[in-house]
Amino acid sequence: MKVAVFGAGNQDLYVRHLNLPEKFGGEPPFGGSRMAMEFAEAGHDVILAEPNKNILEDEHWKIVEDTGVKVTDNDVEAASNAEIAILFTPFGKKTFEIAKNIISHLPDGGIISNTCTVSPVVLYYVLERELRRERQDIGIASLHPAAVPGTPYHGHYVIGGRATSGLELASEEQIQKCVELAESCGKTAYVVPADVSSTVADMGSLVTAITLSGVLDYYYVGTQIIKAPIEMVEKQILMTLQTVASLVESSGVDGMLKAINPELLVKSATSMHLLKEQEILDAALNMLSNLDDDVMKWIEKGEIKHTDLVAAQALTKELKNLMGGTAAEGTIRRCMRKMFE
What is the dihedral of CA 300, 303, 307, 313, to 10 degrees? Predict the structure, then answer.
């Protein structure tokens, strides 16, 4: 398979700031350069596009090239034969610029794969004009390492499939090609809805993991201990998650915390300690009970801004009923972009 990786990875961040060799293990180069190396070692024809030669030490460039990876500073050259073009590129506009620059040069049926710096849904909308008019053959599918390539934690890839909304960013054949690429270098491939991939693969997965643990803890206590109806338990979960998410969107984390009041929450949540072992709740109560003075002052300065606390899926149904399908879809898409951008 012909593969292009765009971006070698910020070694200064990985080695000097995060100290990954000591904390996680592995040796530089990390990031996109390591992905390119692993694909080449699996027998693929790989080119790595990186305009900044100083991002890797000379010895690391030699390691990369010794695996058979071709290195270029020309994005168009890298894209010209790439069946899969993988963007291990900086956050924000730079990634969009590279994607727009290469899309016309990719071969028929090519795939643009995001990693950790952009959601596949946002990438699709950024390229929507080109994808709808000139390059209907191009697919967008995550090939997210969900860990830093080159560390022992990187044993998998998260691949974006059909979105929960039904939006298809890539064909089944293109998604399968990404699966085959991941598995060819010994990684486990997880195909998840495209609009869910960032939630389980990006840095915010820390929030996802802790939140999901809390949801499961309450679901068990609510349905099995209190014997509450499942519908009531799920409504309370929805209300909690929607309230927190909406307040963060309108008021930031500090405003959300000010509205919720950690001291009050500790007192309320303690009454839900109904099992001998509820480690997740214990950890949460301990953390919220011991916020230091600086955090408390930060919360106090927070501003609670106007927030409409609504059930998002119910709202989209109302929009479709009131506005009609086409008009509502446009509104929903614009709001979706604001969440993912």
Answer: -60
